[in-house]
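Why this split exists: single-chain examples teach little about how molecules sit against one another. For that reason, every record in the complexes split bundles all components of an assembly together and asks for one structure covering all of them. Below is a record exactly as it appears in the raw files.
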Amino acid sequence: MNSVRTRFAPSPTGFLHIGSLRTALYAYALAKHEKGDFILRIEDTDQKREVKGSTEAIQDTLKKFSLDWDEFYVQSERLELYKNAAEKLVKDGHAFYCDCKARNAKEEGFSNTLRDPCHDKNLTSGAIKLKVPDGKTVSYHDFVHKKEISWNTNTVYDATLLKTDGFPTYHLAAVVDDLEMKISHILRGHDWLPSTPIHLLVFEYLGGKRPEIGHLTDILSAETGKKLSKRRDSVFAEEFLKQGYLPEALLNFIMLLGWAPKDNRELYTLPEFVENFDINGFQEANPRFLQDKLDWFNGHYIREMSDKELLKLLKPFVPKNAGEEKLKEVVPLIKDRIKKLSDFDSLAGYIFKKTDEIKPLAFTPEYIAHISAATLALIEIKPSNWSLPTITQSLGTVVEKNNFKTSDFYMDLRGTISGSKFTPPLNETLVPIGSAATIARLERGLGENKK
RNA sequence: GGCCCUAUCGUCUAGUGGCCUAGGACACGGGGUUUUCAGCCCUGUAACCUGGGUUCGAAUCCCAGUGGGGUCACCA
């Protein structure tokens, strides 16, 4: 049996990053395309950086995107495994104890001291570090880059494997787990590429079948051209959801940042992506995160939804006083016009506002004539008869009788009713606004523009 | 700075020596539908980083340069 098993291995230091979501998506598709297993592994080996609740938050987010895992592990519950592995490496002469003070690269700047002072001291306690050999070439075939990548070990430093607090570093824990969990493909961020020779050595010394390894491109900020960062860019998947991006749109957008099929197809649901996934489709150069394209995907998926579904998703973005019945009328009017769910308010919020919350806008010199004629006509419609056909009929007659220019007439009406230049078709929105509120808004507009 | 990855329209990309006068999508421009804005339809502008090779032939192969990105912790 050589089933495909992939893993997504975040550390619990906060919310799920958009780049991590993409890594998870690819790892998921890679496994599921071959009917394999997708494993979630929490890499919580740095107690200082751990943020409480992030494991749950990450799981929560993955579920929202339907990236369900088959197995779940937490590294801090597996410390014995790493300790044993480290001690075995020492016994085999591939690692050594070290009692030096921990150094901090950020304080010291670039460092050329690759070999640790304790490299050959044969100490019996302290941290355990990898005994990197000199002048050896280590290499592997990267399945993302589709090429052999190699290093001379003279450029590899004696990395720490087991810390003095008894916890492993990533270099040890990840390798031990990938072996123990029988991971078939390691798919991870590009930032891991430089430390791969360390892992290659550990894999070799520990023995067993080394997984295939692939390093994904970094997603670059469209503005800075640098790797997306928490400080500068909005990077958390949850942030996008909160803004009214749909999970399927975000997923579709992100799957095409760094991967493309032969036929260049762009629209994929998650199951379709899994089905069409091809490991040769990975891109080698770093893509930029351009929000315009995300917006297009989002608009596309919004338009594909039924009004009923959309209404449901819109709930968190809609004014509190908006009743179900009115919303049902409004949803089809905004469906073609919004890019994100949060656009609802700027586009249709006026429908639900009080008269004095709207600042009437006048657009043409004929304003007074337009609005008074409209008011007189609409007052004639009995509230019980207030409907699209009666409104359309009534206003149509006004335009015709007064020889108004249709577009001018409606622009003044629009400005008065909505306080905005852009709205859904006006007659349609007058229905949910209602007879009384419509008349009130028109009268207010007249009052404000009389003098 | 060392090491590593990388280079097709503004952006995401197709392209694996002749199907390329370089294709698609987003964005942008023009037109149509239209009470505004969208949406939809039609349509246009726009790219092979540079220099050397290899070859009858190069976006595709090789080398160099340049540009871009990453990384250099008892963090992941």
